[in-house]
Every structure is written in C-alpha cells, then in structure tokens.
Design brief:
By secondary structure, this protein is an alpha+beta fold. The chain has one domain: NADH Oxidase (3-Layer(aba) Sandwich), CATH 3.40.109. The protein has helices at residues 3-23, 72-78, 92-102, 161-168, 187-193, 197-218, 231-238; strands at residues 57-59, 105-109, 112-115, 126-132, 141-146, 151-156, 178-184, 221-226, 246-255. The strands form two sheets. The protein has a seven-stranded antiparallel sheet with strand order 1-6-5-4-7-9-8, with helices on both faces. A two-stranded antiparallel sheet has the order 2-3. Helix 3 (92-102) packs antiparallel against helix 6, helix 4 (161-168) packs antiparallel against helix 7 (231-238) and helix 5 packs across helix 6. The radius of gyration is 20 Å and the shape is globular.
C-alpha cells in the first residue's frame, strides 16, 4: 500500500477523533455567548411523545408486593454484564418495576420534567422503547413507554419482529426476555444548551441504563448494555426517523441461570 495513502488516512481519522472528543468536552463558558433557541424565545419542543387515541395501551402497576427488595450495596456488588439468560421470562410486575425505577416521570410542569434519573436542566431528552420477547400477560412486540403515564403503547407487532430485533442488535438478543431501547430527541436539550447538549444527552442515557442494570439485580435478572448495534436498523424497527429522534443505547434483560 502507498505510504502516502496510509499517512493521509491516519490524518483524516485523527481529525474525526478530535472532532468527536470535542463533543464530550464542550467549553461551558462559551455557552453564555450563544443565542440559544430558548434565548431567542422560540417554541420549546414537546416534552413527551403523544400516541393516537386508537393505539393499544397497557396500564402498568406501581406497587410491587412480590418483589423482595435488596440493599444498594447488594445490587452494586451483584451487577455484571449478563449475556446468557434463563428461558423463564419476566413477570408483568417485574417489567413494570424495571420501567418504574428506570424511566418514569415523577412530576413535570410546562418547562421542566423531573425524572427518576438526572436529566440536564430538566429537559428530558430521552424516551424508552421496549421489545417484549417473553413477559407474562404482554404479547411480544415493540412498545413505547409513556413515561408521564406509566403505560406501554403498542408500536409494532408482527411474526418476524424477533428476528428483526436480533438482526438490528447484531445477533445479540441471545434469548433476552426484553430489550430496552433508550432513544433521544436532541432538540429538547439543544433548545436550552445548544452545542453542550450532546454530552449531557449521552450521560442521561447512561444514567437510565445503570438504573435498569441495578433494578434488574433486585429481580434476579441481568442486563447487557449494548452500544454495538446497527443504527439504521434499530431506528427503523422502532419506527423513528433516525435524525430528529434516534437510538442512543440498548440493553438486553433476562433472568439469571441457576
């Protein structure tokens, strides 16, 4: 191979790495000089996704009498990435519990959303979708978690969906009972924080994934956090546009083998 070509390729890659590094270390004080959408008085992006009235919606439970709680020390000590799962699925109560602890809204007002996880400036960049593979009382399908209502809205259901999800995850489904897809609508945070938003959006997804990891330990389940997936295919299977709304993190969930 031509040494000049190798050198040029290295320079191009270095520039790409440099640019991406800047995304996770924005100069906060520069934000004071930016005429953000909020400062311009533009309309604020919608805080939540709304679904049509005829969409099939499942109400989840918010009390968990059959789940034995563990200490924080216990769940942190037990948390490890899990890539092999028991054939036993999750119960309806267990999936409700995971969503309640991971993605629910505690309260909100016109300009702020307060969640179980930190969200930059209460902007709530994130949505949660769930692929239900094996959960009692819930048919397999893609669901949107209605975070301000603690309900699941059916988005997609078909016979080949399991294979589509596995393909989009680059064959990493591995029999998981459910897959959490954390998606972001960047404009919600960009509205207030402009070029600083993207670091905070990524951190928010990390907070959510950690919550589902720790909550899974309580129900004797495990999680594998996944960044290696086919972006276009995952966004397509969720039915989101991949530009103004796209997937940022995934997590497979299933019971531990004993």
């Amino acid at each position: 191979m031509n040494p000049t070509y190798i050198c040029l390729k290295t320079i191009i890659m270095d520039e790409k790495i440099k640019r991406n590094r800047e995304t996770i270390k924005p100069k906060w004080t520069d934000l004071y000089k930016v005429n953000s959408a909020k400062r311009q008085g533009l309309e604020r992006p919608k805080q939540f996704i709304e679904v049509d009235d005829d969409t099939s919606v499942i109400s989840l439970v918010n009390e968990f009498p059959n789940i034995r709680q563990k200490t924080l020390t216990e769940v942190i000590a037990g948390r490890r990435s899990l890539r092999e799962y028991d054939s036993k699925g999750l119960s309806f109560e267990e999936l409700s519990y995971l969503l309640w602890d991971t993605s629910r809204i505690d309260s909100y007002r016109e300009n702020a959303v307060f969640r179980t996880i930190p969200t930059a400036g209460a902007t709530n960049s994130m949505e949660t979708y769930v692929f239900v593979n094996s959960v009692e009382q819930i048919e397999s399908g893609i669901y949107l978690y209605l975070q301000n209502r603690h309900k699941l809205a059916l988005i997609k259901q078909n016979d080949g969906l399991k294979d589509m999800v596995n393909d989009a995850l680059l064959k990493q489904l591995r029999g998981a009972s459910a897959v959490f897809f954390f998606t972001c609508i960047p404009s919600r945070t960009e509205y207030k924080y402009d070029f600083c938003a993207h670091k905070m959006i990524a951190i928010e997804a990390g907070h959510a994934c950690q919550n589902v990891s720790l909550s899974s330990e309580v129900i004797d389940a495990g999680v594998c956090a996944i960044c290696a997936y086919d972006q276009d295919k995952v966004d397509s299977v969720l039915g989101i546009d991949g530009v103004e709304h796209f997937t940022i993190y995934c997590a497979t969930v299933g019971k531990k083998k004993h």
